[in-house]
Amino acid sequence: MSRPRPNHAPFLAFVAVIGAVTLWFQLSVAPFVASLLSLHVFFQIVLGATAVAILRNLVGLKTYGTFGAVIVAVSLLLAGPVLGFLIFAFMLLAVVLARGAISREGIQEAHRVAILVTIVALVAVGSTLAGAYLSAPGLAYAAVFPVLITAWFAERFVEDILRVGWAKSLRTLGLTTVAIVVAYVVMVQEPLVAFVARNPLSWTGLVLLNWLLGTRVKFRISERFRFRGSRPGRDDALDGGILTMNRRNRDYVDRYNPKGLLATLDKARVKALLVPQGIPMPETYLVVRGRKDLPQAAALLGGLERFAVKPASAYGGEGILLVKGRVPGGFRVNGHVESPDQVLHHIQRIVDGDFNDGMGDSAILEEHLEQDPTLNPLAPEGVLDVRVLTLLGHPVMAMARLPTKASKGRANLHTGAVGAGVDLVTGRLTSAVWNGVRVDVHPDTGVSLRGFQVPRWREVLETACAAQEASGLGFAGVDIVLDARHGPVVLEVNRRPGLEIQNANRQGLLPRLRAVESLGGSSAPVEQRVERTIGLAMRGWDLPTSSGFAPVPPVGPVPPVNGR
C-alpha cells in the first residue's frame, strides 16, 4: 500500500509569514532594541521550552507535564536557584500532605485540585507574611511561584503513587526536577537570551529547529537503553529494526488511524463496533454514564456474583476492578475484600473522571471472564491476556501478559506483569521480560515459560485481525483473553499500542511492519490474511542477520504442550 504524501503547504505558508515578519523586525531592529531587551523574560521562556522539548523528545525524559517545568524555572529566576528550590519543595510537600489527607473523601478531581490550589495560595500568603514579620524578605518569593502548576504537580504525583507505586513516582518527580534545572540553566544564559532578543530572524530559526526535531528524530536516547540486544549485558546500537516511539506515532498511528476515531474510540464505542460484527467481547451488564445512573448500578450489584468494572476511556489497566465473587460483607476484589458501597464509590470515581484526567467518563459493568484452565499455571493470580499487534488486517507480533502478585492480578506490564513473546507461527512462548529484566520462569510459581502453548492460536490471530478491521483502525494492539467457555474474547483495541512487545520477543517490529505494508491492502478473508502473514513469518520477514534483536531459536528439545 502506497503511503499518502503529507501536504506541507500550510506549514510552508506559516513559515513564510513568520519569516517575513521576523525579517522586517531584523531590518528594523535598532528602534526596538530597548523594548525587546526589556521583554527578555519571554525569550527566556521560549529557550526554556525548547530545552524541555529536547529533553522529552530527543532524550526521552518522562516528566510531569510538558512545560510546567518551564513555569517553575521562571519563578527560580526571580527567587534565585537555592532559595527558590527550597520554597518550591516546601510548597510541594505541603500540597502532597494535603492531598493525602483528602484522598479517602471521594472528592471529584476538579474540586480536589481547587482545594490544593487553595493550600498553595495559603502557603504563599503565609510565607510572605512570615517573611515580613521575621524580617526575612526572601520568604516573600513564595508569592511568585505558580499556584496552579504546583497544585497540579502534587495531584499528578499522588495519583501516580496510587497507580504505579512510590519508586516510579519518585523517579518521574526526580526527572521533572532535572527538567526544571535544565530550563533554568538555559534561561540564565544572558548572551544567548540577548542574541535571540536582538536577532528576530532567530525566532524563525527556533520554529524550524522545533519542527526539525519534532518530525525527523527517529529514536530517543533513552530507547538505546530500553531496547537492548539479545544477550544479557549486551547493549546493541539501535538499527533499522526497532520501532521507536517517534516512528510509531509518525509512521503508523498518524498514518493509519483516523484522527477523529482516535478521539472517540473508547471501550463502549469498541463494543458498539465489534459486537454487531460477531466478534466476541465480554457481555455488558450496564453502562453507567453519570451519577444519575448510580442507583441503577447499586441495584444491579445486589444480583451480581462475578463481574468487572472498567472506565470507558482509561487505558493501561487504570481504574479496573475485577470482582471474583461474593464473601461475607462484600466482594473479593483485586485480591482483597470491598463492600458494595466501596464498589459503588469506585464506579462514582470513574464517572467523575478520576481515571480520565478529570473529564467525565462512563463506567462499564461487564462479564468477568474465566480463564482457559490450560493457562492456569501461567496466571494463578489473575487472567492472562494476549496482545496481538496488527497492521492492515494482518498479525505482526504477539505477546502474552502474565499477571503476578506484584501486579495484583492485572495483566499490565507497568504494574508488574510479565511480558512473554509468542511465536507467531506456533503460538508457543519464546522469551520474556519482567520489570525490564529477562526471565525464563514465572516469578511467583517458578513455572518455565519457554515452549508453553497458547491454545486455539489461529483463532486468536484471526479474532485480533477481525477486531482491528471492525474498529476502523489500521494499526492497533488487540487484547484477547482465552475464555474457558467462549474461546478467544476481545478485551480491548488499543489505538496506540506500546512497544515493550519488542523486548518480550527480542525482535524489532519494523521489518515485520514493512513486510505487511508491502502486501498492500487486501479484501481477502481474515483466514487467508493470517495464513499469508504466517508464511511471511516462516520466511523470517526478510530480517537481516545483523539485527540487534536476533530471533531466539529453541535450545534442546521443545517441551510438550503445557507440560502434557
Structural overview:
The chain has 564 residues and is of the alpha+beta class. It folds into three domains: 17-216, no CATH class; 245-264 and 373-563, ATP-grasp fold, B domain (D-amino Acid Aminotransferase, Chain A, domain 1, 2-Layer Sandwich); 283-367, Dna Ligase, domain 1, CATH 3.30.1490. 47% of the residues lie in helices and 13% in strands. It contains 20 helices and 13 strands. Strands 11-10-9-8-7-12-13 form a seven-stranded antiparallel beta sheet. Strand 12 and strand 13 (487-494) form a beta hairpin. Helix 4 packs across helix 5 (81-101).
Short key terms for the protein model shown above:
alpha+beta, D-amino Acid Aminotransferase, Chain A, domain 1, Dna Ligase, domain 1, six-stranded antiparallel sheet, 13% strand
CATH architecture type of the largest domain: 2-Layer Sandwich
Q: Using the alpha-carbon principal axes, give the shape.
A: globular
Number of helices, counting only DSSP H or I runs of 4 residues or more: 20
- Helix percentage: 40-55%
CATH topology of the largest domain: D-amino Acid Aminotransferase, Chain A, domain 1
Using the CA coordinates, give the radius of gyration.
27 Å
How confident overall, as mean pLDDT? 84
Number of domains: 3
Task: Supply the helix-strand structural class.
Answer: alpha+beta
Give the CA-CA distance, first to last residue. 44 Å
**Biggest pleated-sheet summary:** 7 strands, antiparallel
| Largest sheet, spatial ordering of strands | 11-10-9-8-7-12-13
Q: What portion of the residues fall into strands of 2 or more residues?
A: 5-15%
Q: What is the CATH domain class of the largest domain?
A: Alpha Beta
* CATH-assigned homologous superfamily of the largest domain: ATP-grasp fold, B domain
Instruction: Give a count of the beta strands, DSSP E runs of length 2 or more.
Output: 13
Low-confidence stretches: 229-239, 543-564
